[in-house]
Specification:
Layout: E1 8-22, E2 28-29, E3 36-37, E4 42-48, E5 52-56, H1 57-61, H2 68-71, E6 79-80, E7 85-88, E8 99-101, E9 106-111, E10 117-121, E11 125-130, E12 135-141, E13 145-156, E14 159-161, E15 164-171, E16 193-195, H3 202-211, E17 215-221, H4 223-230, E18 238-239, E19 247-254, H5 261-269, E20 274-278, E21 281-282, E22 291-295, H6 307-310, E23 320-323, E24 332-337, E25 343-344, E26 350-351, E27 353-358, E28 363-367, E29 371-375
Parallel strand pairs: 1-29, 15-16, 16-17, 17-19
Antiparallel strand pairs: 1-13, 2-4, 3-12, 4-11, 5-10, 6-9, 7-8, 9-10, 12-13, 13-22, 14-19, 15-20, 18-21, 20-22, 23-24, 23-29, 24-27, 25-26, 27-28
């Protein structure tokens, strides 16, 4: 068997890229089919139900639960303001009355004669969903969102933190392998997507956050530096919700690793263009990669295609791969042979292997499970 499925990173100068924009609950779609959208244009909106606040009114008023409804000034479905008097006991001959004010504003959702609880639902929270990707709306998802398509440069990373952001692409390193240091982060990089050629340092991260850089794209980072920057150990399931002050994408992984020459060259060629970046990463079932998407401004009217059909996910001779296990972790090379026979590997188990010629010219034989296809 000369071909095999291998999860891969996409690093391509030009591809047709699609994103699905979907509200978490039903709402209103604000764009139409074939409409051109900008990255910050609202494509759908809805309102998230407010949080609930339970009030033990029977206990607060000192009455039986069955009497709470008679003490209420407002009924189920009524809107109330924070601090408004909503309940009062009758007292004795109009004296010794006890009253209670609403701790929050919202709508009275229920008044229970069994528990004496009053449930107040907070004000709905408006939610607007932005396009994220500048492109063309190719499909409307009724009441939920849309699918946007663009002709773009696409670079997928190994790991990211932080969510969706945008900015103009700026290079802070002259070459792949050059560390991103504090001195390379300039004040005029506020709001930019900044590219470093190698490992990012802790002072550079702090400086970028202080200036207001939207995103950093780098080769690697020491795990201790990432822990110090976040203030905690990163989880292993999914990222993207971190409140780090910027989005960070690692194109190669952890350690002192240079960005692949091809990746750096692609980003350098698009310097000055507007980029969309998403650091969300999922490494278990349903793999999700952090991405840098740089749409082309001309947006040629090419026939719409399915991006999933464009890549074969096949490991084949001549294909570019990244090694994802020691002792060659992070090294990039090209497949020179795919032996059919199982071979005994270092662990003394039998596995299918791949022969790879590294960029240095060295040839190595490693298990196929230890490489990742770089799709171009």
């Amino acid at each position: 068997m000369a071909r095999t499925y291998t999860p891969g990173l996409k690093v391509t100068a030009r591809t047709r890229h699609r994103v699905e924009r979907r509200l978490p609950i039903g709402g209103t779609v604000t764009v139409g089919p074939d409409e051109r959208v900008g990255p910050r244009q609202v494509v759908a909106r809805t309102s998230i139900p407010g949080s609930i606040t339970p009030i033990n009114m029977a206990s607060l008023l000192g009455v039986p639960p069955a009497d709470v409804a008679d003490c209420m000034f407002r009924r189920e479905g009524d809107t109330i303001g924070e601090g408004e008097v909503i309940a009062r006991t009758r007292g004795i001959f109009g004296l010794f009355q006890s009253e209670r004010r609403a701790p929050v504003g919202g709508t009275i959702e229920s008044v229970s004669s069994v528990t004496g609880q009053v449930i107040v639902r907070g004000e709905p929270v408006p939610l607007e969903l932005e396009a994220y990707l500048a492109g063309r709306v190719v499909r409307i998802i009724d009441g939920e969102g849309c699918v946007i398509e663009a002709d773009a440069t696409l670079v997928e990373g190994i790991l990211g933190i932080g969510g969706e952001t945008h900015g103009r692409l700026r290079l802070a390193s002259a070459r792949a392998g050059e560390d991103l240091t504090e001195g390379a982060i300039q004040p005029d990089m506020e709001g930019a997507v900044v590219v470093g050629g190698g490992r990012v340092t802790t002072p550079a991260l702090a400086r970028a956050r202080e200036i207001g850089v939207s995103a950093l794209i780098v080769g690697g980072i020491d795990d201790a530096d990432l822990r110090k920057f976040l203030g905690y150990d990163l989880g292993v399931a999914i990222t993207g919700s971190e409140n780090a002050g910027l989005t960070l994408v690692l194109t190669e992984g952890f350690g002192d690793i240079a960005m692949a020459d091809r990746t750096f060259a692609l980003l350098k060629a698009r310097e000055g263009a507007q980029a969309a970046v998403n650091g969300a990463t999922q490494i278990r079932a349903g793999v999700m990669r952090p991405e840098i998407v740089i749409p082309f401004p001309d947006q040629q009217e090419l026939p719409s295609t399915d991006p999933a059909a464009e890549s074969s996910h096949d490991l084949d001779i001549g294909g570019q791969v990244r090694i994802v296990r020691e002792p060659y972790f992070g090294r990039i090379g090209r497949v020179t042979a795919l032996p059919r026979e199982l071979q005994v590997i270092e662990s003394e188990a039998k596995a299918r292997v791949v022969e790879v010629q590294l960029a240095s010219g060295e040839g190595v034989i490693i298990p196929r499970a230890n490489v990742e296809l770089i799709e171009g």
